[in-house]
Design brief:
This protein has 170 residues and is mainly alpha-helical.
């Protein structure tokens, strides 16, 4: 099943998820480094990474929902996509609450609860990102139906066409 929303021939949702995934991971790394070194700049960096990640996660969710809504109703992909989407929404909420709890503190230093929420979010992300991989790599969701190792550039054609199919369709 091809993605419903594409830019330059590529699905938009997978392009967008790298930002919140990377920002949330980096924010947790900043928190861990803060625990070790107590450098007051680190929680400030984590604070801003989290809010940008939340905005990016919500944007990615819009395009993920559009693709999910096109999946066949009783398919395994629809079920996995539901868990993927719900889990990612929970991750965004966990990081949003963690961000909110940091707002009033000096240098945005995290409380114990704020750190627990962000750590829980990153652990849940390991599961939901695996679900996303299962959708793409195992079930072929958002993959061009004509994809192959010699498919033409997406900038030249709107869809990859398998050379065998091209011959059969003449």
């Amino acid at each position: 099943m091809e993605s419903r929303v594409k830019m330059f021939g590529h699905p938009v949702h997978p392009m967008l998820i790298v930002f919140p995934a990377g920002l949330f991971t980096s924010a947790v790394i900043m928190d861990i480094l803060y625990l070790i070194f107590r450098n007051p700049v680190l929680p400030t960096v984590a604070f801003y990474m989290m809010i940008i990640g939340v905005v990016g996660g919500l944007l990615a969710a819009i395009f993920g929902f559009i693709d999910w809504s096109a999946l066949p109703g009783s398919s395994r992909a629809k079920n996995i996509g539901l868990w993927h989407g719900l889990g990612n929404f929970v991750i965004v909420v966990l990081f949003a609450v963690s961000w909110f709890l940091r707002r009033g503190s000096a240098n945005f230093a995290p409380s114990g609860l704020a750190m627990i929420l962000s750590f829980a979010g990153i652990l849940l992300a390991l599961i939901t990102l695996w679900f996303g991989g299962e959708l793409v790599y195992r079930l072929g969701v958002a993959v061009d139906r004509g994809a192959n190792v010699n498919a033409p550039s997406s900038l030249k054609q709107s869809s990859a066409v398998n050379p065998t199919e091209r011959t059969l369709n003449r």
